[in-house]
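User: Fold this; tokens only.

Assistant: Input:
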Amino acid sequence: MDPFVVLVLCLSCLLLLSLWRQSSGRGKLPPGPTPLPIIGNILQLDIRNISKSFSNFSKLYGPVFTVYFGLKPTVVLHGYEALKEALIDHGEEFSGRGALPLIERSHKGHGIIFSTGKRWKEMRRFSLLTLRNFGMGKRSIEDCVQKEARCIVEELRKTNASPCDPTFILGCAPCNVICSIVFQNRFQYEDKNFLTLMERFNENFRIASTPWIQVCNIFPFLIDYFPGTHNKFLKNGAFTKSYILEKVKEHQESLDINNPRDFIDCFLIKMEQEKDNQQSEFTVENLVSTVFDLFVAGTHTTSTTLRYGLLLLLKHPEVTAKVQEEIDRVIGRHRSPCMQDRSHMPYMDAVLHEIQRYIDLIPNGLLHTVTSDIKFRNYLIPKGTNIVPSLTSVLYDDKEFPNPEVFDPGHFLDESGNFKKSENFMPFSAGKRICVGEGLARMELFLFLTTILQNFNLKSLTDLKALNATPTAKGLVSMLPSYQICFTPV
């Protein structure tokens, strides 16, 4: 038979199979835009700002709808009510982790962020307990964060009020907090290993938010057969894991089971306790991936929020002035801020919440899956179906936050100027998959930003109206533009 005819027949069969798979599943799933064979709805999505496309779809199909990324159907949850009903009211059924092919190549289902089922439950439970034992939310961790806050001040003083990009300094501090918990020791900011780790982390977050990576996750064959930045992403991940493995080996050689020094020691002790359990999840692979995840979750997200927060404060000097007035009144200039101060600083609390709401750091959260067939709002969602929780739709809900496109701390203040909570505040997601490090991140944001504003005034090099605070891309994370800032001692 002519090779061309064979090719046409094969493509025709593939198209028919694609159409059959899509049509056979759509009757049970929520409505959504009609997918094209093989590529699904990819042409109807703005890959640089998928959350904007989801907002448009929700106006046509309602708060729960289906889109196809390639051949795979994905149910999108849009708005507070839909997210609450799924992630909180039906938390167990929606607690699976959706597989991202590029992450699968790197993690192979290990760790805490991208694992699922029994492994995820055990890794999460152990991590929460261990972090708590090492002072998560307690004084010992607060001391560590305060120390890094003082280091930030020292580094910023070295700039002598000259223009600088704060990316590196603001990245070092949260990374060192994680290092103290995981490795027992912090790094000096000029340490070469530390600099390399920071560089690899920052590069991978930039890569992860590019349209190419979104496409690779939709069409996984590209990862194996095409050149591109995904190879650099995998190489950086492998480098970091290799570094962590070396640290694990050092800990194994000096381990004292009666005196655990840090997270790695606790994990190694648990491994020893379960060495006869063939089904144990406490393996070196899970240890390395879990430590890797703690770095990912605890470093770049916090540092990006800090950097974006300073940009917003730079652009809104009237907000900065009110924060500094509150700092002077509650704390003064001669002692370090502490977590007890927060309850007496409603305006600062509102500013921190508004920063996290406004920057919408992870617009669509991390991919979930349903762990069993579930009837949800009169739809039948089959086990294994991917779920996207649109966090943008909650953080930018104009019914809860009037003029959500405007940075306004008043969104979290009542008429008397007291702090006002909002159920829509979900930057850490919600339900059983809520971020493990939420408590630590909130502590760092308060202590780092308060300490900076206690010691420095912020000065822009450009006219405030021309200062750009719009993300350059909204992929996995929102990427803000680089900027220069002067830190003038108070």
